[in-house]
Amino acid sequence: MLRRPVSIIAIAALAASLSACASSRSTPLGGSLSDYVGVSYVNVTTTCGGGYQIYRQPINGRMLVAAYAASEVRQSICQSWRGELSVSPVTGVRHEEAVTEYIAATPALKGCTVVSGVAITRLHSEFTIACPAAPGAATISAKG
Q1: Strand locations in the chain, DSSP E?
Q2: C-alpha closest to that of 46 among 90, 23, 76
């Protein structure tokens, strides 16, 4: 009789621990890949030949960098050979170089800088950029 309640408690404890593991893995740190469904992307190649897809959220200044697995290997080997760090000194997150290249190649983002980043997976990182205010975007007040 005692055996049955113990096994039910053990099964319940196992299920609870597995669900906790599953929920922590299904929610990426810092952002969600699902935030970028339907967002168009641009292909970017870095100086070491790494290929990346940049997804830009037009409203909130966030960008998702998706690395190709083969390009990530190539990029890592190249950076190691050159003696470069694989993470950026600005944010400490991999793939920042791809965002920097994208900003440099996009005239509409002239003057923008990367302010923060977070690694979502080994091949996905999310960055936030800040851009200077456009000329003439000052607040206008009228009296009358």
Answers
A1: 41-45, 51-56, 62-67, 113-119, 124-130
A2: 76
For 73-98, what is the mean pLDDT? Answer: 79
What tokens appear for 120 in the block?
């979502």
pTM score: 0.66
- 130 in helix, strand or coil? strand
Amino acid at 44: V
Query: What DSSP string runs through 84-120?
Result: --SS-TTT--TTHHHHHHHHHH-GGGTT-EEEEEEES
- What integer pLDDT is reported at residue 135 of this predicted model? 60
Q: Taking a C-beta distance cutoff of 8 angstroms, is the pair 77, 128 a contact?
A: no
State phi, psi for 43 to the nearest 5 degrees. Answer: -85, 135
Q: How far apart are CA 15 and CA 31, in angstroms?
A: 27
